[in-house]
Amino acid sequence: MPFAQTLLFALPVILGGALHIAAIRLGLWPGLARLPLDGGLTWRGRRVFGENKTVRGAVVMVAATALASGLLRLASGAHALTARGLATAATYPLAWGALLGAGYVAGELPNSFLKRQLDVAPGTAARGGLGPLFWVVDQCDSLAGVLAAAGLVSIPPLTLIAALVVLTLVVHPLAALAMKGLGLKRRLG
């Protein structure tokens, strides 16, 4: 699997995530940041997703990933994307990016729900034997959502999925490190 195809697939989401970090850091759209995705609902006396999953995060991630996909299409041209097997990204870059951004957001929700039900506070690590398991899930949950969303259009080849897992295990912790350095996260991972 060529590195270029992996990067072209992942870059809109990576750039969308970077723009989301910027929105948090700059305090953009504070009203949306105060609106939790779960609307404050609880299940079994515990929040469904918690305070860190906000409407701002969902809106920014979807819009920023769509924007990044459109810009990537302009920068690389349809031919480069199509030649690398990303015909949907070439033909409908904004819709493709929005789909990937929505997949990213949706992929994080089951993990957040499970952690809230196990009394793992938002932004903190699980303790004991669950810690390493949740670390791996925290790195790959959004990728699973992105791949599921992309699968609505076409099933990515296994070699691309494997390359994306490796890329995710590098990029996701680096993004957490950047967020910690900016004071946006309390922990790595």
What's the topology here?
Layout: H1 3-26, H2 30-33, E1 42-43, E2 46-47, H3 55-83, H4 87-91, H5 93-117, H6 130-150, H7 158-181
Antiparallel strand pairs: 1-2
Helix pairs in contact: 1-3, 1-7, 3-5, 5-6, 6-7
Written description of the protein model:
Strands 1-2 form a two-stranded antiparallel sheet. The model has no long low-confidence stretch (mean pLDDT 89). The protein is built from 7 helices and 2 strands. It is an all-alpha fold. The chain has one domain (3-181). The protein starts with a helix and ends in an 8-residue tail after the last helix. It has helices at 3-26, 30-33, 55-83, 87-91, 93-117, 130-150, 158-181, and strands spanning 42-43, 46-47.
Tell me the number of strands: 2
* Distance separating the two termini: 27 Å
Strand order of the largest sheet: 1-2
Proportion of residues in β-strands: under 5%
What are the key terms here?
two-stranded antiparallel ribbon; 7 helices; globular; 70% helix; 189 residues; mainly alpha
Task: Provide a compact summary of the structure.
This protein is an all-alpha fold and about 190 residues long. The protein has 7 helices and 2 strands. It has helices at about 5-25, 30-35, 55-85, 85-90, 95-115, 130-150, 160-180; strands spanning about 40-45, 45.
